[in-house]
Structure formats: structure tokens, C-alpha cells
Write a structure and sequence with these properties.
protein phosphatase; globular; protein-tyrosine-phosphatase; 172 residues; alpha/beta; 4 strands
Length: 172
């Protein structure tokens, strides 16, 4: 996607696009459908190390157990020039945020639409500074409980993210 779409659009970004961002993509897509919202959702990684791989099996399990349908997914890296085409580009960690800002600078586009996923977490105190305090936990090196914890964090912000995408699209 390189041109601005007419409906609100969200790109969620983590490292390899097989755990956190893929989970967020599934959750946002299903929540938008449940709410009757026409919102484009996609996900990507800052790395190409997992390119072509499906959602991690452990992530699929917790999503399925939570009632989500698992779509076909092929992990991919953020493409040159695509950041400007989204109303919201959401980084899962401060490191991803920095990488996305570098990508925007390289592409010569504004990074005003690049934010942290947990900026929309209603459980966090107002004014929590952008930085590692807003990182979505990485379940990759952990066990089942780590994937459940990540699922809870992602689900906790999903509705606020959808609302923010609608507001951002209206402002653009």
C-alpha cells in the first residue's frame, strides 16, 4: 500500500511479523468486523528474518483458544514508501518505533502517524512517557503464559486503536 486509502488504515509492526504484530492484526481485524467498521489492517516486521512464515504456532494457539479465526499469513518486512499510506503505524516497542522513524526519514515522509501500540492502553496511567515503558512484551523466548500475557496487552488496547484510526482518517 503506498497511496492513502479512503477507509481508515492501520499497520502494526514488530520484529519478524509472526507474533505481536500478527496477533494484533488478527485481533483488530476481528474487532473491526464485530463493530461493523470498515478499517484496513495489515502487519509487518522491521526485519525480513521471518519473511514468508505463518503466525507462530504458539500465537495461533492462544488466538484460537481466545476465539479468533486464524487467517493465512505470510510474514513480511515493512516495504519502502508504505508508511505514508496508513493513518496509524503502530510500533510494538521503542526499538520498533525508532526503526520506523528512520524508515520514514529515509523515505522522505512524515512520521506523525507512527506511534506506540500501548499509547492506546487504557490501563496505563495518563502521560506514561513514550519509551520502553510502553513496550508490548515479546513472547518469542517464553512459554505459553508469555503468549497469553501478550494477547491480554494487545486485546486491552484494540478498541482504542480502532477509534484512533477512525479519528486519524477523519483528520487526514
Amino acid at each position: 500500500m503506498t497511496e492513502k486509502s479512503v477507509k481508515p488504515s492501520i499497520l502494526v509492526v514488530c520484529t519478524g511479523n509472526i507474533c505481536r504484530s500478527a496477533m494484533a492484526d488478527v485481533i483488530l481485524t476481528q474487532r473491526a468486523a464485530e463493530r461493523g467498521l470498515a478499517i484496513e489492517v495489515d502487519s509487518a516486521g522491521i526485519s525480513n528474518e521471518e519473511a514468508g512464515n505463518p503466525i507462530d504456532d504458539r500465537a495461533q494457539r492462544v488466538l484460537r483458544d481466545a476465539g479468533y479465526e486464524i487467517p493465512r499469513h505470510a510474514a513480511r518486512q515493512v516495504r519502502p514508501g508504505e508508511l505514508a499510506g496508513y493513518d496509524l503505524v503502530l510500533a510494538m516497542t521503542d526499538r520498533h518505533l525508532s526503526a520506523l522513524k528512520r524508515i520514514a526519514e529515509r523515505d522522505g515522509v512524515s512520521a506523525d502517524n507512527v506511534r506506540m501500540w500501548r499509547e492506546f492502553d487504557p490501563e496505563l496511567p495518563s502521560g506514561t512517557p513514550v519509551g520502553t515503558e510502553l513496550d508490548v512484551p515479546d513472547p518469542w523466548y517464553g512459554g505459553h503464559q508469555d503468549f497469553l500475557d501478550t494477547l491480554a496487552v494487545v486485546e486491552g488496547s484494540a478498541d482504542a486503536v480502532l477509534d484512533a484510526a477512525i479519528a486519524a482518517a477523519k483528520a487526514n
